[in-house]
Amino acid sequence: MTSTCLITLAFSFLLGSSYGLSFNYSYIESMNMVEIEISGPVDGLGNRYVAVAFASKPEMKDADGYYCTDRELKSFTIRGLYQAPVEHMDTGAVTLSSAGVENGQLTCKFLRPVVVNKTLENGEVFAFDFTKQDFHVLLATGAHTNGKMVHHQRREIWPTKLTMIGIRSDTCGPGNGRKSCLQLPPGCLPSDPECVFFSLRQDGNKIHMEMSGGRGNGQQYVAIAFSADHHMTDADMYYCDGETLTSGVIRDYAQRPVDLHDESVSIESTGTVNGVGQCIFSRDLCVNKYVSRGSLEQFDLGKMSYYILFAHGDMSSDGQLGYHGSEGRGLSVAAIELANGTNIDYQCVNVTRSVVILSATTQGVSGPDIMQGVTTQEVSDPTTSKAIPSLSCKAVNFVFLVCLVGGAMAAISH
After folding, report:
1. Rounded Cα gap, residues 406 and 389, in angstroms
2. What CATH number was assigned to the domain covering residues 7-157?
3. Which of 27, 47, 142, 269 has its CA at 20 to 30 Å from residue 361's CA atom?
């Protein structure tokens, strides 16, 4: 299955149309490969090349590179500044798909594994891993003489790091080191803005979470909450708008959730990856939050079972959560044991009352079978006299939990 995470870095609008350098890619999850396409002008100057490289810093140093002519693909490493790239005889698992010249543009497409090892200037073998690091993209074009690249005549370095591969679904399911996932619709990819994706994984006294969905960029959000019952009140909530991950609490019906300053949350990454809002973070197994009537509620994911509530919708013009509507929300029809039951000593952390939105960073549950034999139910919302769509769920092969949300299908792997 191929994800739809296509990015085009149109350097021409920065440098003028004469440069014509472009780069785009797509992640093929089923192959664990990235398909890369690069293009540059030939200008009728004879044999030419177009090249791309990936570097941790915005400079031509310690970079994993590839160039192609209209006939071949070569792999190279840029080790030191102002040093000629080191070309490699073997491209390894990197394979050329197509290359050619059309309308004055040399374009080539090739497949690269998500992880490639290259030797850097200090002699260290470094893993250029698209799943774990972000990279600056370097583009160049120049003459190709006697089978070698000549110093580039045009080049550009993308000023900000690019997240090549964001949240992934191929590690969902049972087993050590894997994660429990909710996908709506079932089997959808986190790279799709129409896919609501949420995952949990226990790591010691922490719960590691991933959220993905909507267009991000502060325009749309995806939210998850944990509640002791099936009502949309007194719930521990988190939402992601592609710029910020915010911890909050749902206190009462028909009231906007309250944003909290939550030091128990550790944000790994927030951002809009290939047009999709994504956040990765962790929280303590147990936190205390002030809920309705000023009472302090303990949300202990390590020992208690909770209903899962989720929603998605637009952000309002003032930067607040917009109403999700009847089609943009759902909940589990039973409380779910989220942690793996490991006997760990931990304390419950108090979350302060102050209302503050967490700043975005720049980056980044195994357990027993759940919800077997659960029946469909409708939950009334007294504020609207309308039924809240619930998850009508059943276990399938004890691995995937298939759920119905307001007529749409969802799946939870656990």
Report:
1. 5
2. 2.60.40.1210
3. 27
